[in-house]
């Protein structure tokens, strides 16, 4: 073979791409793109998860022993005020005696408390009209005409079962998920 033919063959061999090398480069480039996209997108996805402090407060335990009859306390659950009231026998009797057709959001007292533990009322303390926190947990607070809670912003009034009785609020105070963890302890959440 002549020298020019040998040189041409050598140039053709060097210029021809090796198929296994091209496949490897495509695989390597594709992997780098996937890792890069993942590294950019993951912080956005992770930011949508609840914060650790929120997860830590997803459930709380409340000791009911210090709450005297007729007294109410406020605890914070998931950043919301929760009213826990130890109702008197008169408050329970009054709440049970209300005819459902007199209520803006009809719900019986029995549907708002745990069976056998009727003296304990646990409600989310946020007015259902505009999200204010009603007054009524302190002895000096106005409780409205129905003895429960009073929202001074627009005049909504709730009874001793947390049911809206007067004002612009469209529904009763919310009920958080809770269970009794003993005679003097509840777990909210």
Brief characterization of the structure:
The protein is α+β, with helices and mostly antiparallel strands and 189 residues long. It is built from 4 helices and 9 strands; from the N terminus they run αααβββαββββββ.
Task: Walk me through this protein's architecture.
Helices cover about 30% and strands about 20% of the residues. By secondary structure, it is α+β, with helices and mostly antiparallel strands. The chain has 2 domains: about 5-45; about 55-189, Rieske Iron-sulfur Protein.
How far the N terminus sits from the C terminus, by CA atoms, comes to: 88 Å
**Radius of gyration computed on alpha carbons:** 33 Å
* CATH topology type of the largest domain: Rieske Iron-sulfur Protein
Order of helical and strand elements: HHHEEEHEEEEEE
Tell me about the largest β-sheet. Answer: 3 strands, antiparallel
Give the DSSP E fraction (strand runs of 2 or more residues): 15-25%
CATH class of the largest domain: Mainly Beta
Q: What's the overall geometry?
A: elongated
Uncertain stretches = none
Could you name the CATH homologous superfamily of the largest domain? Rieske [2Fe-2S] iron-sulphur domain
Report strand order across the widest sheet: 1-9-8
**Count of runs of 4 or more consecutive helical residues:** 4
Mean pLDDT: 85
Q: How many structural domains? A: 2
Q: Determine the fraction of residues in helical runs and give it as a percent range.
A: 25-40%
> What structural category characterises the helix and strand content?
alpha+beta
- CATH architecture annotation name of the largest domain: 3-layer Sandwich
Record field, number of beta strands: 9
